[in-house]
Structure formats: structure tokens, C-alpha cells
Amino acid sequence: MMNNKFIRIYEDIAARIRTGEIEAGTLLPSELDLSESYQTSRETIRKALKMLSEEGYIQKIQGKGSIVLDIRKIDFPISGLVSFKELAKKMGHRAKTYVKVFEEIKVDQALFKKINFGLNEKVWEIRRVRQVDGEHVILDKDHISQRLIPGLSKEICNDSIFEYIEEELGLTISFAKKEILVEEPTAEDRELLDLEGFHNVVVVRSQVYLEDASQFQFTEARHRPDKFRFVDFARRR
């Protein structure tokens, strides 16, 4: 039981951060104060703090202590190209992916009007639900060219498509055109996402291109609005 005490301390502090009892931007008490509060050794406290850091609840700052991070929202760069796996690394085991649809289809007239692929071109159709802190908060709907991106599998989609493209296929993902809108949830949104009490979703539609300017992906990411903050850096010329 003593070996698991640091887990119980981690769970207690994490729960207090999630409920807002411990506010984002504040410093946690020192290791000494925490050890006295929980009546345990500083080594046990260090293990709990390490776990909190790995799970994205706190950031340890040299000479200052542990600052509490804002876990209620996830920062999505507007101008950058970042995979969900890369974002999830900052959140530790708080984030999971579930592949709901993985099919090979041909571009029909309806799809042809939405995406810049050829009529009857073979594409991968993928639906993935992203879970954060136990709630389903993103629905990613992807269409990816089979000609440009061969060999996709459900297992790859559950891990990282971008990582597969860059590391396995040796291709360079170069740029994307993005459109951000606010829409009413669809029946699919309400079926797959935890939207009780929410009347809108934030939709990011992206056309993603390789280094030779070939479009390989059209994605529509549908976000529950309370969990996400879209950020960018702007400079006046």
C-alpha cells in the first residue's frame, strides 16, 4: 500500500486541478509543505509530482517550483501543422484516439464538390474520435489519397498518420489551407461526441499538401467548443 501512496496523492491533486480547486497559473506548495500535508516522505511527493508533470497537469520550473497548467483547453496552433499525437504527448495518458471508420472509397459527385480530389479517385475515408479526460471532444473526418499515401491501416490511424507519412513513407508534409467555422452539431456529432448542453461545434476544415504541392488530405475536425483554444503569433509588418 505504501508503494501506491504517490498514486493516491497524484490522483488527489489531479482531481483538485480538474475541478478548479487548484487554479491554473498558481504554484503548488513546496515538496516540504506537501510532504507535511500528506504525511509522507519527500521522495513520495517527488514521484507524485513527476506523474503530474508527465500527465500534463503541472510544469516544473527550475528555482520556482511546480506551476499548474490550464488543462481545460488545448492550444491548437492556427498556422502550424501539428498532429493530435504531438499534442497528446503534452497531456500524457489524458488523451486517447478511437478509430470509428476506416474504409476505401471512390470520390463521388457529392464528395467531389467538397474536396480537391479527382472524380472516382480512390481515397481512404477515416473517422476518429479523440477523447480527453474521459470525454469525447473531437471528431476528425479525413479523406486521404490512396495514390499519394499507400498502405494506410486502422492501426496507423489509431497512432499517427503524419508520423507514418514522414517516417515510413519518407514524404514531407509542407503546408495547409484552413477554414474555421462555428456550426450547429450534426446527428453524427451528437452520436459520437459528448455534447450535452452544447449547441455549437468549432469546425476546422483543412486541405493538406506535400512538398511538391500535391494535396493528399482533406480533413474536417469538429471540436467541442469548451476544450479548445486556437492560438497564433502575429507580427505587424
UniProtKB/TrEMBL annotation:
GO-annotated molecular function: DNA binding; DNA-binding transcription factor activity
A Pfam family it matches: GntR
Record flagged with keyword DNA-binding: yes
Keyword Repressor: yes
Domain of life from the UniProt record: Bacteria
SMART domains: HTH_GNTR (SM00345), UTRA (SM00866)
Keywords: DNA-binding, Repressor, Transcription, Transcription regulation
Domain HTH gntR-type as annotated: residue spans: 3-71
Gene Ontology annotations of biological process type: negative regulation of DNA-templated transcription
NCBIfam families in alphabetical order: trehalos_R_Bsub
Matching PANTHER family: HTH-TYPE TRANSCRIPTIONAL REGULATOR TRER (PTHR44846:SF12), MANNOSYL-D-GLYCERATE TRANSPORT/METABOLISM SYSTEM REPRESSOR MNGR-RELATED (PTHR44846)
Protein name, as recorded: Trehalose operon repressor
Species, as recorded: Paenibacillus pabuli
Source lineage: Bacteria, Bacillati, Bacillota, Bacilli, Bacillales
